Protein backbone atom coordinates (compact mmCIF):
# COMPACT_ATOMS: atom_id res chain seq x y z
CA UNK A 1 0.00 0.00 0.00
CA UNK A 2 1.35 3.38 -1.01
CA UNK A 3 1.72 6.23 1.47
CA UNK A 4 -1.18 8.03 -0.24
CA UNK A 5 -3.34 4.89 0.07
CA UNK A 6 -2.48 4.52 3.77
CA UNK A 7 -3.40 8.15 4.41
CA UNK A 8 -6.69 7.72 2.55
CA UNK A 9 -7.50 4.54 4.48
CA UNK A 10 -6.70 6.21 7.79
CA UNK A 11 -8.88 9.20 6.93
CA UNK A 12 -11.74 6.87 6.04
CA UNK A 13 -11.34 5.00 9.31
CA UNK A 14 -11.35 8.25 11.26
CA UNK A 15 -14.46 9.40 9.41
CA UNK A 16 -16.28 6.10 10.00
CA UNK A 17 -15.19 6.07 13.66
CA UNK A 18 -16.34 9.63 14.10
CA UNK A 19 -19.71 8.80 12.58
CA UNK A 20 -20.00 5.75 14.89
CA UNK A 21 -19.11 7.75 18.01
CA UNK A 22 -21.47 10.49 16.91
CA UNK A 23 -24.26 7.98 16.51
CA UNK A 24 -23.63 6.80 20.07
CA UNK A 25 -23.96 10.36 21.36
CA UNK A 26 -27.12 10.82 19.33
CA UNK A 27 -28.55 7.59 20.73
CA UNK A 28 -27.67 8.71 24.28
CA UNK A 29 -29.46 12.02 23.81
CA UNK A 30 -32.59 10.47 22.29
CA UNK A 31 -32.83 7.36 24.49
CA UNK A 32 -34.95 7.82 27.61
CA UNK A 33 -32.67 7.74 30.63
CA UNK A 34 -33.00 8.53 34.30
CA UNK A 35 -30.46 10.52 36.30
CA UNK A 36 -30.28 10.87 40.04
CA UNK A 37 -28.14 12.50 42.68
CA UNK A 38 -28.26 12.54 46.47
CA UNK A 39 -26.56 14.48 49.24
CA UNK A 40 -26.97 14.87 52.99
CA UNK A 41 -26.22 18.47 54.02
CA UNK A 42 -25.17 18.85 57.65
CA UNK A 43 -27.56 21.23 59.45
CA UNK A 44 -26.12 20.80 62.94
CA UNK A 45 -25.88 24.28 64.52
CA UNK A 46 -22.43 25.83 64.83
CA UNK A 47 -23.24 27.41 68.19
CA UNK A 48 -24.82 26.46 71.52
CA UNK A 49 -27.01 26.75 73.46
CA UNK A 50 -29.96 26.71 71.07
CA UNK A 51 -33.69 26.43 71.57
CA UNK A 52 -35.10 22.97 70.88
CA UNK A 53 -38.89 22.77 70.42
CA UNK A 54 -41.25 19.87 70.93
CA UNK A 55 -42.30 20.35 74.55
CA UNK A 56 -44.60 22.64 76.52
CA UNK A 57 -41.51 24.35 77.95
CA UNK A 58 -38.51 25.47 75.97
CA UNK A 59 -35.45 23.23 76.09
CA UNK A 60 -32.02 24.79 75.68
CA UNK A 61 -29.75 22.29 73.96
CA UNK A 62 -26.05 22.53 74.76
CA UNK A 63 -24.72 19.81 72.43
CA UNK A 64 -25.62 17.49 69.55
CA UNK A 65 -25.68 13.79 70.35
CA UNK A 66 -25.68 13.02 66.61
CA UNK A 67 -25.58 15.26 63.53
CA UNK A 68 -28.68 16.76 61.98
CA UNK A 69 -29.08 16.67 58.19
CA UNK A 70 -31.12 17.93 55.28
CA UNK A 71 -31.24 14.76 53.20
CA UNK A 72 -31.68 15.50 49.50
CA UNK A 73 -32.61 13.42 46.46
CA UNK A 74 -32.97 14.81 42.93
CA UNK A 75 -34.33 12.97 39.88
CA UNK A 76 -34.36 13.88 36.18
CA UNK A 77 -35.82 11.78 33.36
CA UNK A 78 -34.90 14.03 30.43
CA UNK A 79 -38.24 15.80 30.59
CA UNK A 80 -38.95 16.56 34.26
CA UNK A 81 -36.91 17.15 37.39
CA UNK A 82 -38.01 16.50 40.98
CA UNK A 83 -36.30 17.20 44.29
CA UNK A 84 -37.00 15.79 47.74
CA UNK A 85 -35.59 17.18 50.97
CA UNK A 86 -36.24 15.81 54.46
CA UNK A 87 -34.79 17.82 57.35
CA UNK A 88 -34.05 16.71 60.90
CA UNK A 89 -36.31 19.25 62.56
CA UNK A 90 -39.60 19.34 64.45
CA UNK A 91 -41.42 21.69 62.10
CA UNK A 92 -40.29 24.23 59.51
CA UNK A 93 -42.38 27.22 58.38
CA UNK A 94 -43.20 27.93 54.78
CA UNK A 95 -41.02 31.04 54.47
CA UNK A 96 -37.86 28.99 55.13
CA UNK A 97 -38.80 26.37 52.57
CA UNK A 98 -39.85 29.02 50.02
CA UNK A 99 -36.52 30.83 50.38
CA UNK A 100 -34.56 27.59 50.06
CA UNK A 101 -36.54 26.58 46.98
CA UNK A 102 -35.86 29.91 45.31
CA UNK A 103 -32.11 29.62 45.92
CA UNK A 104 -31.97 25.97 44.87
CA UNK A 105 -33.97 26.64 41.71
CA UNK A 106 -31.64 29.48 40.72
CA UNK A 107 -28.63 27.20 41.17
CA UNK A 108 -30.00 24.04 39.52
CA UNK A 109 -32.86 24.99 37.22
CA UNK A 110 -35.23 22.63 39.02
CA UNK A 111 -38.61 24.41 39.26
CA UNK A 112 -39.47 25.43 42.81
CA UNK A 113 -42.89 23.79 42.56
CA UNK A 114 -41.17 20.49 41.69
CA UNK A 115 -39.46 20.45 45.10
CA UNK A 116 -40.99 18.74 48.11
CA UNK A 117 -39.34 19.78 51.38
CA UNK A 118 -40.34 18.49 54.79
CA UNK A 119 -39.36 18.08 58.44
CA UNK A 120 -39.08 14.71 60.16
CA UNK A 121 -40.77 16.01 63.33
CA UNK A 122 -38.01 14.87 65.64
CA UNK A 123 -38.62 16.62 68.96
CA UNK A 124 -34.92 17.26 69.42
CA UNK A 125 -34.03 19.63 66.60
CA UNK A 126 -33.47 23.39 66.59
CA UNK A 127 -36.48 25.71 66.93
CA UNK A 128 -37.35 27.53 63.71
CA UNK A 129 -41.12 27.71 64.24
CA UNK A 130 -42.64 29.39 67.27
CA UNK A 131 -44.79 27.00 69.28
CA UNK A 132 -45.64 26.88 72.96
CA UNK A 133 -42.70 28.40 74.86
CA UNK A 134 -40.03 27.81 72.21
CA UNK A 135 -39.29 30.67 69.82
CA UNK A 136 -37.22 30.60 66.60
CA UNK A 137 -33.45 30.92 66.49
CA UNK A 138 -32.99 33.79 63.94
CA UNK A 139 -29.39 32.93 63.05
CA UNK A 140 -30.21 29.26 62.56
CA UNK A 141 -33.20 30.06 60.34
CA UNK A 142 -30.96 31.75 57.77
CA UNK A 143 -28.36 28.99 58.12
CA UNK A 144 -31.06 26.38 57.42
CA UNK A 145 -32.18 28.13 54.25
CA UNK A 146 -28.63 28.14 52.89
CA UNK A 147 -27.89 24.54 53.85
CA UNK A 148 -31.07 23.16 52.27
CA UNK A 149 -30.23 24.97 49.03
CA UNK A 150 -26.63 23.74 49.26
CA UNK A 151 -27.89 20.17 49.67
CA UNK A 152 -30.00 20.27 46.54
CA UNK A 153 -27.18 21.91 44.59
CA UNK A 154 -24.70 19.23 45.66
CA UNK A 155 -27.16 16.44 44.86
CA UNK A 156 -27.72 18.01 41.43
CA UNK A 157 -23.97 18.14 40.80
CA UNK A 158 -23.78 14.42 41.50
CA UNK A 159 -26.29 13.46 38.80
CA UNK A 160 -25.52 10.05 37.31
CA UNK A 161 -27.36 7.54 35.19
CA UNK A 162 -29.64 5.65 37.53
CA UNK A 163 -32.39 3.12 38.02
CA UNK A 164 -35.31 3.38 40.41
CA UNK A 165 -37.75 0.99 42.02
CA UNK A 166 -40.28 0.90 44.81
CA UNK A 167 -41.69 -1.41 47.42
CA UNK A 168 -43.84 -1.48 50.52
CA UNK A 169 -43.44 -3.38 53.77
CA UNK A 170 -45.33 -3.45 57.05
CA UNK A 171 -44.36 -3.13 60.68
CA UNK A 172 -47.36 -2.91 63.00
CA UNK A 173 -45.26 -3.44 66.14
CA UNK A 174 -44.02 0.15 66.45
CA UNK A 175 -47.13 2.28 65.80
CA UNK A 176 -50.08 2.85 68.15
CA UNK A 177 -52.95 5.29 68.11
CA UNK A 178 -52.29 7.72 70.93
CA UNK A 179 -55.79 9.22 71.18
CA UNK A 180 -58.07 7.14 73.39
CA UNK A 181 -61.73 7.42 74.24
CA UNK A 182 -62.18 7.60 77.98
CA UNK A 183 -64.78 5.66 79.90
CA UNK A 184 -68.00 7.31 81.10
CA UNK A 185 -67.41 9.36 84.20
CA UNK A 186 -63.81 10.28 83.43
CA UNK A 187 -63.34 14.05 83.42
CA UNK A 188 -61.29 15.45 80.56
CA UNK A 189 -60.53 19.09 81.25
CA UNK A 190 -59.05 21.26 78.50
CA UNK A 191 -56.80 24.33 79.07
CA UNK A 192 -59.74 26.69 78.53
CA UNK A 193 -61.86 25.31 81.36
CA UNK A 194 -64.02 23.01 79.24
CA UNK A 195 -64.89 19.40 80.11
CA UNK A 196 -66.51 18.16 76.90
CA UNK A 197 -63.52 16.27 75.43
CA UNK A 198 -64.21 12.60 74.80
CA UNK A 199 -60.62 11.55 74.10
CA UNK A 200 -57.22 11.97 75.71
CA UNK A 201 -53.85 12.08 74.00
CA UNK A 202 -51.21 9.85 75.65
CA UNK A 203 -53.75 8.87 78.36
CA UNK A 204 -51.55 6.68 80.55
CA UNK A 205 -52.27 3.07 81.41
CA UNK A 206 -55.26 3.22 83.74
CA UNK A 207 -57.84 0.59 82.81
CA UNK A 208 -60.36 2.59 84.82
CA UNK A 209 -59.99 5.55 82.44
CA UNK A 210 -58.98 4.20 79.03
CA UNK A 211 -61.73 2.72 76.90
CA UNK A 212 -60.40 2.19 73.36
CA UNK A 213 -58.24 3.88 70.70
CA UNK A 214 -60.14 6.52 68.73
CA UNK A 215 -58.71 5.46 65.38
CA UNK A 216 -56.56 3.05 63.37
CA UNK A 217 -52.85 2.88 62.57
CA UNK A 218 -51.00 2.68 59.26
CA UNK A 219 -48.24 0.05 59.51
CA UNK A 220 -47.03 0.53 55.92
CA UNK A 221 -43.42 1.39 55.13
CA UNK A 222 -43.18 2.90 51.64
CA UNK A 223 -39.87 3.06 49.80
CA UNK A 224 -38.29 4.53 46.68
CA UNK A 225 -34.86 2.99 46.02
CA UNK A 226 -32.32 4.51 43.63
CA UNK A 227 -29.11 2.90 42.36
CA UNK A 228 -26.66 3.55 39.54
CA UNK A 229 -26.41 1.34 36.47
CA UNK A 230 -23.81 -0.84 38.22
CA UNK A 231 -26.27 -1.58 41.02
CA UNK A 232 -24.55 0.64 43.59
CA UNK A 233 -27.16 2.22 45.92
CA UNK A 234 -27.51 6.01 45.64
CA UNK A 235 -30.43 6.76 47.93
CA UNK A 236 -33.49 5.37 49.66
CA UNK A 237 -36.55 7.53 50.41
CA UNK A 238 -38.76 5.79 52.98
CA UNK A 239 -41.99 6.80 54.71
CA UNK A 240 -43.58 5.57 57.94
CA UNK A 241 -46.46 6.98 59.97
CA UNK A 242 -44.79 7.34 63.37
CA UNK A 243 -44.82 10.70 65.16
CA UNK A 244 -41.31 10.37 66.62
CA UNK A 245 -39.64 8.24 69.33
CA UNK A 246 -37.60 10.51 71.61
CA UNK A 247 -35.60 9.46 74.63
CA UNK A 248 -32.68 11.85 74.30
CA UNK A 249 -30.33 12.43 77.20
CA UNK A 250 -30.35 15.82 78.88
CA UNK A 251 -30.15 18.99 76.80
CA UNK A 252 -28.99 17.34 73.56
CA UNK A 253 -30.04 17.54 69.94
CA UNK A 254 -30.74 14.33 68.04
CA UNK A 255 -32.17 13.26 64.68
CA UNK A 256 -34.10 10.49 66.46
CA UNK A 257 -35.04 7.15 64.90
CA UNK A 258 -35.31 8.73 61.44
CA UNK A 259 -31.51 8.99 61.16
CA UNK A 260 -30.92 5.66 62.88
CA UNK A 261 -33.15 3.96 60.29
CA UNK A 262 -31.25 5.64 57.45
CA UNK A 263 -27.94 4.45 58.83
CA UNK A 264 -29.14 0.89 59.37
CA UNK A 265 -30.54 0.60 55.86
CA UNK A 266 -27.24 1.76 54.42
CA UNK A 267 -25.46 -0.96 56.38
CA UNK A 268 -27.95 -3.67 55.44
CA UNK A 269 -27.74 -3.05 51.70
CA UNK A 270 -23.97 -2.59 51.71
CA UNK A 271 -24.16 0.98 50.46
CA UNK A 272 -21.11 3.21 49.99
CA UNK A 273 -20.44 6.23 52.17
CA UNK A 274 -22.08 8.52 49.60
CA UNK A 275 -25.42 6.73 50.05
CA UNK A 276 -28.23 8.90 51.42
CA UNK A 277 -30.89 7.15 53.47
CA UNK A 278 -34.03 9.16 54.11
CA UNK A 279 -36.98 8.48 56.41
CA UNK A 280 -39.91 10.87 56.01
CA UNK A 281 -42.84 11.27 58.38
CA UNK A 282 -46.13 9.88 57.13
CA UNK A 283 -49.56 10.65 58.57
CA UNK A 284 -48.78 10.37 62.27
CA UNK A 285 -50.64 13.24 63.90
CA UNK A 286 -52.42 10.78 66.19
CA UNK A 287 -49.83 7.97 66.18
CA UNK A 288 -46.91 7.28 68.51
CA UNK A 289 -44.70 4.46 69.75
CA UNK A 290 -46.38 3.73 73.11
CA UNK A 291 -49.07 1.07 73.49
CA UNK A 292 -51.54 2.45 76.02
CA UNK A 293 -53.47 -0.80 75.83
CA UNK A 294 -50.62 -2.48 77.71
CA UNK A 295 -50.28 -2.56 81.48
CA UNK A 296 -47.28 -0.23 81.58
CA UNK A 297 -44.30 1.06 79.65
CA UNK A 298 -40.79 -0.09 80.43
CA UNK A 299 -38.51 2.93 80.31
CA UNK A 300 -35.16 2.43 78.62
CA UNK A 301 -31.76 4.12 78.68
CA UNK A 302 -31.37 7.26 76.55
CA UNK A 303 -31.47 6.62 72.78
CA UNK A 304 -32.21 2.91 73.27
CA UNK A 305 -35.87 3.05 72.20
CA UNK A 306 -35.13 4.95 69.00
CA UNK A 307 -32.54 2.30 68.13
CA UNK A 308 -34.99 -0.52 68.80
CA UNK A 309 -37.69 1.12 66.68
CA UNK A 310 -35.28 1.83 63.83
CA UNK A 311 -34.01 -1.75 63.87
CA UNK A 312 -37.52 -3.18 63.73
CA UNK A 313 -38.62 -0.92 60.87
CA UNK A 314 -35.35 -1.46 58.99
CA UNK A 315 -35.69 -5.25 59.24
CA UNK A 316 -39.13 -5.10 57.65
CA UNK A 317 -38.01 -2.60 55.02
CA UNK A 318 -34.93 -4.60 54.07
CA UNK A 319 -36.94 -7.77 53.46
CA UNK A 320 -39.08 -5.86 50.95
CA UNK A 321 -36.08 -4.00 49.52
CA UNK A 322 -34.54 -7.27 48.34
CA UNK A 323 -37.44 -7.83 45.96
CA UNK A 324 -37.43 -4.42 44.29
CA UNK A 325 -37.62 -4.36 40.49
CA UNK A 326 -35.68 -1.45 39.01
CA UNK A 327 -36.49 0.73 35.99
CA UNK A 328 -34.04 2.65 33.77
CA UNK A 329 -36.69 5.29 33.09
CA UNK A 330 -39.96 6.29 34.72
CA UNK A 331 -42.41 9.15 34.22
CA UNK A 332 -41.97 12.04 36.65
CA UNK A 333 -44.59 14.70 37.27
CA UNK A 334 -45.49 17.40 39.78
CA UNK A 335 -48.67 19.26 40.67
CA UNK A 336 -49.36 21.67 43.48
CA UNK A 337 -51.90 24.26 44.51
CA UNK A 338 -52.44 26.80 47.25
CA UNK A 339 -55.47 26.52 49.50
CA UNK A 340 -56.96 29.30 51.60
CA UNK A 341 -57.70 27.66 54.93
CA UNK A 342 -59.59 29.29 57.75
CA UNK A 343 -57.99 30.03 61.13
CA UNK A 344 -59.74 29.37 64.46
CA UNK A 345 -58.99 32.71 66.04
CA UNK A 346 -59.81 33.35 69.71
CA UNK A 347 -62.93 35.41 70.31
CA UNK A 348 -62.79 38.75 72.09
CA UNK A 349 -63.94 37.05 75.29
CA UNK A 350 -61.32 34.30 74.86
CA UNK A 351 -58.61 36.89 74.35
CA UNK A 352 -59.67 38.92 77.37
CA UNK A 353 -59.64 35.81 79.56
CA UNK A 354 -56.20 34.82 78.23
CA UNK A 355 -54.74 38.25 78.96
CA UNK A 356 -56.17 38.17 82.48
CA UNK A 357 -54.59 34.76 83.08
CA UNK A 358 -51.18 35.99 81.94
CA UNK A 359 -51.41 39.18 83.95
CA UNK A 360 -52.08 37.15 87.08
CA UNK A 361 -49.28 34.68 86.29
CA UNK A 362 -46.54 37.21 85.56
CA UNK A 363 -43.94 37.23 82.77
CA UNK A 364 -43.28 33.46 82.61
CA UNK A 365 -42.00 30.97 81.71
CA UNK A 366 -45.32 29.29 82.48
CA UNK A 367 -45.89 25.96 84.16
CA UNK A 368 -49.61 25.22 83.83
CA UNK A 369 -51.56 24.34 80.68
CA UNK A 370 -53.98 27.18 81.39
CA UNK A 371 -51.13 29.71 81.35
CA UNK A 372 -49.34 28.16 78.36
CA UNK A 373 -52.49 28.14 76.25
CA UNK A 374 -53.39 31.65 77.36
CA UNK A 375 -50.08 32.80 75.87
CA UNK A 376 -50.83 30.81 72.72
CA UNK A 377 -54.22 32.52 72.43
CA UNK A 378 -52.63 35.96 72.64
CA UNK A 379 -50.04 35.07 69.98
CA UNK A 380 -52.62 33.36 67.77
CA UNK A 381 -54.82 36.47 67.87
CA UNK A 382 -52.21 38.12 65.62
CA UNK A 383 -52.79 35.53 62.85
CA UNK A 384 -54.85 36.44 59.77
CA UNK A 385 -58.35 34.93 59.38
CA UNK A 386 -57.04 32.71 56.56
CA UNK A 387 -53.66 31.21 55.68
CA UNK A 388 -52.35 30.11 52.30
CA UNK A 389 -51.11 26.52 52.39
CA UNK A 390 -49.43 24.37 49.74
CA UNK A 391 -50.80 20.94 48.92
CA UNK A 392 -48.54 19.03 46.54
CA UNK A 393 -48.51 15.75 44.64
CA UNK A 394 -45.53 14.21 42.84
CA UNK A 395 -45.35 11.15 40.64
CA UNK A 396 -42.41 8.76 40.37
CA UNK A 397 -43.35 5.90 38.07
CA UNK A 398 -46.31 4.10 39.62
CA UNK A 399 -45.90 5.92 42.93
CA UNK A 400 -47.80 9.01 44.05
CA UNK A 401 -46.38 11.17 46.84
CA UNK A 402 -48.52 13.78 48.56
CA UNK A 403 -47.03 16.67 50.55
CA UNK A 404 -49.20 18.16 53.33
CA UNK A 405 -47.98 21.04 55.55
CA UNK A 406 -49.54 19.68 58.72
CA UNK A 407 -49.35 17.04 61.41
CA UNK A 408 -51.77 14.91 59.43
CA UNK A 409 -53.98 12.29 61.07
CA UNK A 410 -53.67 8.68 60.01
CA UNK A 411 -57.28 8.54 58.77
CA UNK A 412 -56.42 11.14 56.14
CA UNK A 413 -53.40 9.21 54.91
CA UNK A 414 -55.31 5.93 54.71
CA UNK A 415 -58.15 7.58 52.80
CA UNK A 416 -55.75 9.12 50.27
CA UNK A 417 -53.98 5.81 49.76
CA UNK A 418 -57.30 4.04 49.28
CA UNK A 419 -58.66 6.51 46.71
CA UNK A 420 -55.46 7.37 44.83
CA UNK A 421 -55.50 6.62 41.08
CA UNK A 422 -51.87 5.50 41.28
CA UNK A 423 -50.92 1.95 42.23
CA UNK A 424 -48.97 3.06 45.30
CA UNK A 425 -49.28 6.29 47.23
CA UNK A 426 -47.95 7.73 50.45
CA UNK A 427 -48.17 11.09 52.19
CA UNK A 428 -45.32 13.15 53.60
CA UNK A 429 -46.48 15.36 56.46
CA UNK A 430 -44.91 18.62 57.62
CA UNK A 431 -44.13 19.35 53.96
CA UNK A 432 -43.57 22.76 52.40
CA UNK A 433 -44.55 24.59 55.58
CA UNK A 434 -46.21 24.16 58.95
CA UNK A 435 -49.90 24.73 59.67
CA UNK A 436 -50.29 22.68 62.84
CA UNK A 437 -52.41 19.60 63.39
CA UNK A 438 -54.98 18.54 60.80
CA UNK A 439 -57.69 16.63 62.71
CA UNK A 440 -60.70 15.35 60.80
CA UNK A 441 -64.02 17.05 61.62
CA UNK A 442 -64.93 13.98 63.67
CA UNK A 443 -61.79 14.29 65.76
CA UNK A 444 -62.53 17.98 66.28
CA UNK A 445 -65.88 16.92 67.70
CA UNK A 446 -64.17 14.50 70.08
CA UNK A 447 -61.68 17.13 71.27
CA UNK A 448 -58.33 16.40 72.92
CA UNK A 449 -54.87 17.95 72.76
CA UNK A 450 -54.52 17.90 68.97
CA UNK A 451 -57.65 20.05 68.64
CA UNK A 452 -56.87 22.60 71.36
CA UNK A 453 -56.52 26.05 69.79
CA UNK A 454 -52.88 27.14 69.67
CA UNK A 455 -50.14 27.83 67.14
CA UNK A 456 -49.85 24.03 67.00
CA UNK A 457 -53.53 23.58 66.08
CA UNK A 458 -55.35 26.48 64.50
CA UNK A 459 -56.84 25.48 61.15
CA UNK A 460 -60.61 25.55 60.72
CA UNK A 461 -62.64 22.41 61.32
CA UNK A 462 -63.28 22.03 57.57
CA UNK A 463 -59.57 22.16 56.63
CA UNK A 464 -59.00 18.40 56.54
CA UNK A 465 -61.75 17.60 53.98
CA UNK A 466 -60.43 20.42 51.77
CA UNK A 467 -56.85 19.17 51.98
CA UNK A 468 -57.85 15.57 51.34
CA UNK A 469 -60.01 16.43 48.31
CA UNK A 470 -57.26 18.63 46.87
CA UNK A 471 -54.64 15.92 47.30
CA UNK A 472 -56.78 13.43 45.41
CA UNK A 473 -57.50 15.95 42.67
CA UNK A 474 -53.77 16.59 42.22
CA UNK A 475 -53.04 12.86 42.12
CA UNK A 476 -55.60 12.56 39.35
CA UNK A 477 -53.86 15.25 37.34
CA UNK A 478 -50.56 13.40 37.59
CA UNK A 479 -51.79 10.53 35.42
CA UNK A 480 -53.40 12.66 32.72
CA UNK A 481 -50.17 13.28 30.80
CA UNK A 482 -47.41 11.21 32.42
CA UNK A 483 -43.92 12.53 31.92
CA UNK A 484 -45.03 15.77 30.30
CA UNK A 485 -45.28 18.00 33.37
Instruction: Please identify the structural class as seen in this structure.
Output: alpha+beta
Mean pLDDT reading: 93
Radius of gyration: 25 Å
Strand content: 25-35%
Structurally, how many domains make up the residues?
2
Number of strands: 23
The helical percent reads: 25-40%
Describe the global form.
globular
Low-confidence stretches: 1-29
Largest sheet: 8 strands, mixed
Spatial arrangement of strands, main beta sheet: 7-6-5-1-8-13-14-16
End-to-end separation in angstroms reads: 59 Å
Provide a count of the helices.
10
Key structural traits:
single chain; about 475 residues; alpha+beta; 2 domains; eight-stranded mixed β-sheet; 10 helices
Describe the protein:
With 485 residues, the chain is an alpha+beta fold. It has two domains: 35-179 and 210-342 and 383-478, no CATH class; 348-380, no CATH class. It is built from ten helices and 23 strands. It has an eight-stranded mixed β-sheet. A four-stranded mixed β-sheet has the order 18-19-20-22, covered by helices on one side. β19 and β20 form a beta hairpin. The radius of gyration is 25 Å and the shape is globular.
SSE map:
Layout: H1 3-30, E1 35-42, E2 50-52, E3 59-61, E4 63-64, E5 69-76, E6 81-87, H2 94-108, E7 115-119, H3 138-157, E8 160-170, E9 176-177, E10 179-182, E11 199-201, E12 210-213, E13 220-228, E14 233-240, E15 252-253, H4 256-268, E16 276-281, E17 287-288, H5 304-321, E18 332-342, H6 348-361, H7 369-380, E19 386-396, E20 399-403, E21 407-408, H8 410-419, E22 424-428, E23 437-438, H9 441-446, H10 463-478
Parallel strand pairs: 4-15, 6-7, 14-16, 20-22, 21-23
Antiparallel strand pairs: 1-5, 1-8, 2-3, 5-6, 8-13, 9-17, 10-11, 10-12, 13-14, 18-19, 19-20
Helix pairs in contact: 2-3, 4-5, 6-7, 8-10
